[in-house]
């Protein structure tokens, strides 16, 4: 007679035995405990209830943005110089100093708007977030593949993301909502000209650039500060997709970029990027027609030539997506000695947001997980909380989890550096736009720098999306585009049946300051 009550294993099977989380051997993983073979089931059925209730909790909240991503590991190798000079002239950060010095890294690429299983062919910025496991603790550089951003003040982030995410009623991404917001946000023009060009759909993660986007500072041993911007250039080259290319890929694969990255690393074809840095003296730069702390602007390369300071190589895949990719946590607050924040109003807001969301998304002890843990010594007086995995003691007296103490415990480090000697700041508390917003000029320059086919693609994409929008939104966008560059405004207008005459009467928005050049362009419309 066949035994249906549990299979057990054969005595000659040498594989390890299945247990539950308490270490109890599992004798039957096929049948729950019941009164007789046909049930009913019993409530003291610990093995079954533990298995199901753990499964019920297998998902954590996905990232509110950048939910879909891929993580891999590798190293950063420093060049030790900035142009012809030793890099120590500008920063004392240890990872940059010696030529050939290697630092382990984890890099997470991502899309922004879609959920965890969404298509990787979306027209969407791509995240480019690196964790450097340095001897001085972790440094996270959390960037994107496009050099600028939609907004310049962190207080607008929930709005821009709500406009880009699916409609709360229909759950569909809707150009009418996206361009409603953008048409009222002139600072977004530079980003839109990038995003709706072919660069808005990178071919995959290996063939795209990365940018820190926000402005940071470097600090040298004398405490002198410089403003810096970071850029990552792929050795593989840059490749993009048109809407038609993307549709063809998406028809058979939603996760082509993750697959491409994983398979390249598995076959030993390790992707590589060079890190280039632009530098400015740490002041307001009144000679520029933009503010160096404005993340809707790039710094002209002729005036601020990017210098290569190192390279990264990715050479190892994750062993478990959930533990290493889903639970990884990057943030702009995570800096090491020799690196600092600038007063960029986006950067300051981001710095609050990342660890705040990670305490909610992963839990208060997210920094104890291997992917997030520093490889430097870590000894705090922080204790307990959900999922505390270990107590990072280190003081000679385990009773002392406070500071100061004369009974042992941890002491403060000695600060071996002079105070920073950057600019001093005075001002009244206020809520004002930065001066020199100059929302159109760089967007226009970007348009003029494109190849013909890229411009054609950009116009086609704008027209296709704006056709789905209300007339008032179309008119305002054509008005903006005419201020960006005549040709762009005329071509998008033509696609929508809107002439400069139709929009000449529109007033500037309350949220914008026009330059002389903008006013001249406006005057021409009428
Ligand atoms: C992820 C907030 C702007 C790049 C995130 C997350 C939040 C967030 C809450 C999810 C983090 C997590 O769950 O671990 C913000 C806010 C911004 C802002 C408030 C503006 C004030 C930017 C900008 C960039 C950027 C300008 C590009 C330079 C990223 C990247 C990720 C991310 C790459 C994914 C990190 C990862 O792979 O885990 N952001 N963000 N964000 N953000 Fe931002």
UniProtKB/TrEMBL annotation:
<dbReference type="Pfam" id="PF00199">
    <property type="entry name" value="Catalase"/>
</dbReference>
<feature type="active site">
    <location>
        <position position="144"/>
    </location>
</feature>
<keyword id="KW-0575">Peroxidase</keyword>
<dbReference type="GO" id="GO:0004096">
    <property type="term" value="F:catalase activity"/>
</dbReference>
<feature type="domain" description="Catalase core">
    <location>
        <begin position="19"/>
        <end position="411"/>
    </location>
</feature>
<feature type="active site">
    <location>
        <position position="66"/>
    </location>
</feature>
<feature type="binding site" description="axial binding residue">
    <location>
        <position position="354"/>
    </location>
    <ligand>
        <name>heme</name>
    </ligand>
</feature>
<dbReference type="GO" id="GO:0042542">
    <property type="term" value="P:response to hydrogen peroxide"/>
</dbReference>
<dbReference type="GO" id="GO:0005737">
    <property type="term" value="C:cytoplasm"/>
</dbReference>
<feature type="region of interest" description="Disordered">
    <location>
        <begin position="1"/>
        <end position="38"/>
    </location>
</feature>
<keyword id="KW-0349">Heme</keyword>
<dbReference type="GO" id="GO:0042744">
    <property type="term" value="P:hydrogen peroxide catabolic process"/>
</dbReference>
<dbReference type="Pfam" id="PF06628">
    <property type="entry name" value="Catalase-rel"/>
</dbReference>
<keyword id="KW-0408">Iron</keyword>
<comment type="similarity">
    <text>Belongs to the catalase family.</text>
</comment>
<comment type="function">
    <text>Decomposes hydrogen peroxide into water and oxygen; serves to protect cells from the toxic effects of hydrogen peroxide.</text>
</comment>
<dbReference type="InterPro" id="IPR024711">
    <property type="entry name" value="Catalase_clade1/3"/>
</dbReference>
<dbReference type="GO" id="GO:0046872">
    <property type="term" value="F:metal ion binding"/>
</dbReference>
<keyword id="KW-0479">Metal-binding</keyword>
<dbReference type="GO" id="GO:0020037">
    <property type="term" value="F:heme binding"/>
</dbReference>
<dbReference type="InterPro" id="IPR020835">
    <property type="entry name" value="Catalase_sf"/>
</dbReference>
<keyword id="KW-0376">Hydrogen peroxide</keyword>
<dbReference type="InterPro" id="IPR018028">
    <property type="entry name" value="Catalase"/>
</dbReference>
<keyword id="KW-0560">Oxidoreductase</keyword>
<dbReference type="InterPro" id="IPR002226">
    <property type="entry name" value="Catalase_haem_BS"/>
</dbReference>
<dbReference type="InterPro" id="IPR010582">
    <property type="entry name" value="Catalase_immune_responsive"/>
</dbReference>
<dbReference type="InterPro" id="IPR011614">
    <property type="entry name" value="Catalase_core"/>
</dbReference>
<protein>
    <recommendedName>
        <fullName>catalase</fullName>
        <ecNumber>1.11.1.6</ecNumber>
    </recommendedName>
</protein>
């Amino acid at each position: 007679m066949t035994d249906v009550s549990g299979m057990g294993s054969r005595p000659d099977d040498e594989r390890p035995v299945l247990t539950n989380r308490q270490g109890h051997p599992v004798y039957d993983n096929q049948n729950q405990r019941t009164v007789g073979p046909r049930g009913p089931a019993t409530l003291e059925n610990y093995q079954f209830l533990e298995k199901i209730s753990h499964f019920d909790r297998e998902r954590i909240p996905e990232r509110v943005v950048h939910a879909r991503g891929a993580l891999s590991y590798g190293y950063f190798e420093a060049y030790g110089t900035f142009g012809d000079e030793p890099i120590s002239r500008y920063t004392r950060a240890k990872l940059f100093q010696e030529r050939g010095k290697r630092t382990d890294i984890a890099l997470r690429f991502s899309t922004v708007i879609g959920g965890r299983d969404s298509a990787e062919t979306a027209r969407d910025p791509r995240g480019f977030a690196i964790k450097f496991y340095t001897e001085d603790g972790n440094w996270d550089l959390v960037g994107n593949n496009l050099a600028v951003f939609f907004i310049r003040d962190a207080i607008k982030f929930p709005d821009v993301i709500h406009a880009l995410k699916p409609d709360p009623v229909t759950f569909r991404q809707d150009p009418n909502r996206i361009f409603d917001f953008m048409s009222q946000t002139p600072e977004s023009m530079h980003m839109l000209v990038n995003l709706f060009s072919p660069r808005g759909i990178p071919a995959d993660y290996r063939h795209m650039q990365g940018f820190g986007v926000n402005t940071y500072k470097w600090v040298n041993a004398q405490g002198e500060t410089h403003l810096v911007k970071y850029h990552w250039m792929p050795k593989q080259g840059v490749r993009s997709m048109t809407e038609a290319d993307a549709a063809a890929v998406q028809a058979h694969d939603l996760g082509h970029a993750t697959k491409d990255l994983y398979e390249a690393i598995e076959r030993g074809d390790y992707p590589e990027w060079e890190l280039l840095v632009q530098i400015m003296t740490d002041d307001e730069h009144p000679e520029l027609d933009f503010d160096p702390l404005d993340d809707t602007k790039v710094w002209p390369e002729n005036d601020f030539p990017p210098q290569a300071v190192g390279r990264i190589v990715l050479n190892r895949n994750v062993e478990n997506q959930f533990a290493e990719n889903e639970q990884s946590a990057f943030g702009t607050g995570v800096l090491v000695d020799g690196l600092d924040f600038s007063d960029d109003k986006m950067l300051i807001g981001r710095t609050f947001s990342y660890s705040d969301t990670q305490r909610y998304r992963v839990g208060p002890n997210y920094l104890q997980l291997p992917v997030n843990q520093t490889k430097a010594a870590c000894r705090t007086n922080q204790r307990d909380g959900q999922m505390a995995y270990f107590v990072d003691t280190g003081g000679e007296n385990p009773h002392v989890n406070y500071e100061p103490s004369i009974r042992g415990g941890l002491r403060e480090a000695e600060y071996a550096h002079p105070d920073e000697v950057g600019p001093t700041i005075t001002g009244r508390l206020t809520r004002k736009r930065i001066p020199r917003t100059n929302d159109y000029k760089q967007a226009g320059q970007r348009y003029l720098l494109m190849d013909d086919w890229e411009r054609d693609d950009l116009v086609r994409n704008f027209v296709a999306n704006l056709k789905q929008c209300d007339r008032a939104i179309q008119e305002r966008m054509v008005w903006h585009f005419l201020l960006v560059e005549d040709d762009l405004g005329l071509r998008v207008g033509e696609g929508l049946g809107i002439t400069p005459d139709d929009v000449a009467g529109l007033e500037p928005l309350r949220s914008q300051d026009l330059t002389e050049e903008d006013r001249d362009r406006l005057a021409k419309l009428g």
